[in-house]
Design goal:
The protein is an alpha+beta fold and 230 residues long. It contains 9 helices and 4 strands. It has 2 domains: 143 residues, no CATH class; 77 residues, Alpha-Beta Plaits, CATH 3.30.70.240. Helices cover 61% and strands 15% of the residues. The model has no long low-confidence stretch (mean pLDDT 78).
Length: 230
């Protein structure tokens, strides 16, 4: 029983080694700086990236200092819990990606504050490499997707089958790939909907001008959608 009381000593404070503390701060600064660079170069958030990433190093240092201090005293740990129950953080996180990077920076601070420098360094470097690889893969995928355009042609008259085939042939000439979506025909309206991969976007604008000149009461609608696929 006495041993338990001694192990749970609220007034016990372990002396912090200054050299280890300094090395923890240095590693925290370096790792959080790498996180900041990775965020600025790979993030696709709509908010101001530079302004948001400026807090990374400061947040990491703050976390490192807090963990270094409270790990040596159970009383300080409980005091921190009480303080956090009073303080309310009202910062608006607009993008989930921002929250992920904040947790990553806090993880750096926790690891460095606990003096687990090697594990923290390896884990953060692995996470950043994974982010860069995934970002490059996503970028290549977006380039492929961005070429897919949904093309809608609305002509306020009932055109013949030959005219429809000629129109589709003209679209094929400027496209590397084409997928039929739908077509509707009435006595005074013809609507054609296609997914196309144009050779050049300028070719689509040229085609729309040709359609406008050939069919006076016509409308060409072009739309990009992430969900489109050929």
């Amino acid at each position: 029983m006495d041993q338990i009381k001694e192990s749970i000593n609220f007034n016990q404070v372990i002396q912090i080694d200054l050299l280890n503390f300094a090395s923890s701060l240095l590693v925290a600064i370096i790792l959080s700086f790498f996180v900041q660079i990775t965020y600025n170069r790979t993030s696709k958030t709509l908010s101001n990236q530079n302004n948001f990433s400026r807090i990374f190093i400061l947040l990491c240092l703050t976390t490192t200092i807090i963990i270094t201090i409270i790990k040596s005293s159970l009383a300080l740990s409980l005091g921190l819990v009480g303080a956090l129950s009073i303080v309310r953080f009202r910062a608006a996180i607009k993008e989930p990606e921002e929250l992920v990077y904040l947790f990553l920076v806090i993880a750096v601070g926790l690891g460095c504050g606990a003096n687990q420098l090697i594990i923290t360094t390896v884990g953060i470097i692995f996470a950043l490499i994974l982010i860069v690889i995934y970002s490059g893969y996503a970028k290549n995928s977006r380039k492929e997707i961005e070429q897919i355009i949904n093309l809608g042609v609305i002509i306020e008259q009932d055109i013949s089958d030959k005219q429809i085939n000629n129109l589709i042939s003209e679209i094929k000439k400027i496209s590397t790939d084409l997928k039929f979506i739908s077509m509707s025909r009435t006595s005074n309206n013809t609507t054609i909907n296609l997914d196309v991969k144009p050779n050049k976007f300028q070719n689509l604008t040229t085609l729309s001008e040709k359609i406008k000149n050939k069919f006076k009461n016509s409308k060409v609608i072009m739309a990009y959608n992430d969900d489109l696929s050929l």
